[in-house]
Amino acid sequence: MQTIIVTGGAGYIGSHTIIELINQTTYDVISIDNFSNSTPQTFDRIETITGKRIRNLNVDICNLEALEFAISSVKSPILGIIHFAAFKAVGDSVLNPLSYYHNNLESLVNMLKICKLKNIQNFIFSSSCSVYGNVDQLPVTEETPFAPAESPYAHTKQIGEEILNDVVLSGAKMKVAALRYFNPIGAHATGLIGELPLGVPNNLIPFVTQAAAGIRSHLTVFGSDYPTPDGTCLRDYIHVVDLAEAHVLALKFLFGIKEPSYYDVFNIGTGNANSVKEVIDTFERVNKIKVPNVIGERRQGDIPTLWADVKKAKNILLWEAKLSLEQSLMDAWRWQSKLNTARVIEKI
Ligand code: UD1
Predict the structure, then answer these.
(1) What's the pTM value of the predicted model, to 2 decimals?
(2) Strand, helix or coil at 137?
(3) Fewest C-beta atoms under 10 Å: which of 8, 23, 188, 294?
(4) CA–centroid distance, residue 289 to ligand 1 (Å)
(5) Distance CA 220, CA 120 (A)
(6) What are the pLDDT digits (tens) for 47-83?
(7) Whole-number average pLDDT of the chain
(8) If you take atom 2 of ligand 1, which residue's CA is the nearest one?
(9) For ligand 1, atom 19, which residue shows the shortest CA distance?
(10) Which residues are tagged catalytic?
(11) Planar angle of CA 234, 239, 243, nearest 5 degrees
(12) Measured between alpha carbons, how far is 104 from 87 in angstroms, rounded to an integer?
């Protein structure tokens, strides 16, 4: 049996990708996750959904010695790595830049050392649309030159891509795809797994669902004076299950490449732009529930408008997003509703 390693397998995108790997491939999947921003129960939920128990190596990827030891316990050949594990809160990265540079870059370098050591030739990197910075050309294509990173988080993704490109250029026998995610939202259709922010959410959708559930008194819309049709920021919101599927197709694409060394980047979005107000209105309409909200100040570091040109992923990876904003917001609410029920049961 050949193995695919998924780092950050208990995380939001990692857990959804594991489910798609189980459903769409025959590979053995092993996760590496130290639960720094996730919970081991995610693997119980993956088992409920798929009937498969995922083995997890609980190790800090920044600790190379511990990582090497953990990987040495994997006896089957490792065909590829999907590297999700990283810190991802933009605002936090502005306050704690060193922890982002350390965690996100050290972990990538260590995973690449493991690839060299174990001759692992296929690698998918979680990049981000934030690599583009505040660009004028919209929608962004993969050729759009980067503007300066707006946060240390975004900078770690720019540097991460450069590290991977340098490694491939050095002649390493590796095939690498960096996937630039736009704004992942939604949850698995079962409502059993989804985004589980610890503490106060930073991202829009968890805040919307928590405000609708009464966990937060209201949502603050960060700025309504942007140069957009309704004054609020525009983003490309992509369903996490579509995003998960992009990883499976990217992996299959890498397996099919005959050259020993390859590096490329792909936008993974829907190609649609929706404003914060549109998201709130759509959420209220499809879920028939109010989202208490007020207009507030702009958030530092926010880009007014960003959405993807997705032709390259469609043409090369044969992937495109299928699920609508409406579906994403219904799935996000189903997940939040199940969380609320779980919390009530826990209290009893
Ligand atoms: C950013 C990054 C993205 C990264 C993600 C990880 C950019 C362009 N994108 O997404 O690559 O993967 O963080 O966290 O840097 N909003 C509110 N009220 C809230 C929360 C958000 O109005 O309480 C608004 C924001 O101003 C923004 C939109 O909602 O316009 C989306 O925000 P968010 O979900 O935080 O994602 P990004 O900042 O776009």
Answers:
(1) 0.96
(2) coil
(3) 294
(4) 22
(5) 45
(6) 999 999 999 999 999 999 999 999 999 999 999 999 9
(7) 95
(8) 130
(9) 204
(10) 153
(11) 110
(12) 6
Residue spans of alpha helices (H) in the chain: 12-24, 41-50, 64-71, 90-95, 97-100, 106-118, 152-169, 204-212, 240-256, 276-287, 311-312, 325-347
Sign of the torsion angle spanned by Cα atoms 297, 145, 142, 11: negative
Residue identified by tokens 């870059």 is 105
Give the number of other CB atoms < 10 A from CB of residue 252: 15
Cα distance between residue 284 and residue 212, in whole Å = 9
Q: How is residue 157 written in tokens?
A: 């993704």
Q: CA geometry: angle at 83 spanning 78 and 88, to 5°?
A: 165
Q: Using one digit for the tens of pLDDT, what is the confidence trace for 167-223?
A: 999 999 999 999 999 999 999 999 999 998 778 898 999 999 999 999 999 999 999
CA of 203 to the centre of ligand 1 (A): 5
Q: Are 184 and 206 in contact (CB under 8 A)?
A: no
- 191 closest CA partner among 42, 331, 341: 331
Contact of 305 with 255, CB cutoff 8 Å: no
Residue nearest to atom 34 of ligand 1 (CA): 203
Question: Which atom of ligand 1 is nearest to 232's Cα?
Answer: 30
Ligand 1 mean position to 150 CA, how many Å?
Answer: 12
User: Distance from CA of residue 187 to its chain's centroid?
Assistant: 12
CB count in 10 Å sphere of residue 166? 11
Tokens for 319? 């992937």
Q: How many CB atoms lie within 10 A of CB 255?
A: 12
Are the beta carbons of 68 and 112 closer than 8 angstroms? no
228 lines ligand 1 (CB under 6 A): no
Residue with tokens 């006896």: 75
